[in-house]
Every structure is written in structure tokens, then in C-alpha cells.
Amino acid sequence: MNEIKIIPLILLLFFSAISCNFTTEKHSSEKENSIISKIKYKKNTSGTDTLWVSQNDISVFRQEEVMISRPCSNPELQMRYELINPRNEAYYFIYNNKKQLVTEGKYTNEYTYEGQTYKRGDFYNVKSYYYKSNGNLKSIHYMKDGRNHKTELFDNKKRLTEIMFYDQKTGDRTKVEIYDKGQLEETHIYTSFDDYYTVKADN
Question: Which of 24, 104, 128, 134 has the CB geometry, 3.0–4.6 Å to 141, for a possible disulfide?
């Protein structure tokens, strides 16, 4: 009779242990996803601090939902991220909640370009990474001196398909390099907004 009472007790303890373990693992997983990375400081050879941070870390970023309107498309809600107490002259690697690198560049409190000083803190020389729905890299956009410099496009095998170059003063395209399987095929040199001539690559 005692053995019959002990068996349900053992089973109860066994399932309680499993349940507790599952809850702990779930909590641990949620915590890991809520803050992907912490700020890390590392002096590189030039003496600049390098920081690896996550947009999910609310101690680093202030998050705000904003409505974005674009021509010929419906308005959509997007999350805007603002750095809290950014570190001047630090080089940032910023990751999203999917652990994808989205921004890379040096933050400066002010920046001087062609004799004009801009007092607003920002990333004036920066690379922005964009991804396809399957997680593959789609493009990298480069800003130089606070202006559009170039955009690189990639295929599903992470090979270059196109590089668009921009005039830093007007923002207009100056040339577009076309790639086939990662190899330069031809270059379109723009003479006006939508007129160009083609130069074939010497392969």
C-alpha cells in the first residue's frame, strides 16, 4: 500500500523538476533575446574606442515608433533608435534584434567639411547594412563627410551585382558599375540625371 502512494509522489517530483527546468531555460532565452550585446571597449592601434552595441539594449538606445510615409506606398510604422549618451570619437558596430550588423562608423559631436563645421553629433562617415527577408545581405550604403557616397548591391551568394556612385554635392548618380557573378562587366557613366554611356570592362 505504501509503494502505491510513493510512485505518484515520485512522478509528481519528476514532472515538477522538468517544468522548473523548462521555465528557467525559457526565461534565460527571453533574457538573451532582449539584450543581445553589451557595450565593450577596446583600444585599437589608432587609440579609438570601439563599441559593439545592440539596438535592443534600452540602456544604449531610446526606441520610438514613428509613421513613415513614402511616395507611391502606404504609410508604415517603423522603430526609430536614438543613441543615449553617445561616446564622442568612438567607432560603433550596431546590431539589430536578429544579430545582424546594421550600422558601422565613427560618432563625432561635431564635424568640419570644406571649412564648414556642423555642430550636430552624428555618424558622418558610416556604412549602413540592409538585408533581404531570408537574412542574406542585400546592400551596403556608404556615407562620406555626411553625404551619399556609394551603394553596393549583392546577390544571394553575397557577390556584388552593382555599385552606384553619387556626386557628394548634388547627390546625383555619377556612375554605376555592373557585375556578373562578382566580376565587373561594364560601367555606366552618367552625363545627366538619366543619360549615360557604357564602358565595357577589360576582362
Answer: 128
